[in-house]
Design brief:
Helix content: 55-70%
Largest sheet: none
Mean pLDDT: 77
Order of helices and strands: HHHH
Distance between the termini: 34 Å
Number of domains: 1
Strand content: under 5%
Structural class: mainly alpha
Shape: globular
């Protein structure tokens, strides 16, 4: 890999929104398929329902991870 490609890859990490953990993304996909949810609904339900937070192993203070 060339130096400029490594530098560009390094800079891409810090642009935009922070990355979401892969386990959280997988948990969201499981909830979507289990409850037949669209793309916008899981975010609301994860913030609203304690059972969804429990399934994803999030505590009440974890507001920025989802």
């Amino acid at each position: 890999m060339h130096f400029w490609m490594m530098e560009a890859a390094h800079l891409r990490q810090f642009e935009g929104r922070p990355l979401v953990d892969a386990i959280i993304m997988f948990s969201i996909l499981v909830l979507q398929s289990r409850y037949n949810l669209g793309d916008d609904v899981p975010e609301y339900l994860i913030r609203d329902c304690l059972s969804f937070r429990w399934f994803m192993e999030l505590c009440l203070a974890d507001k920025g991870r989802v």
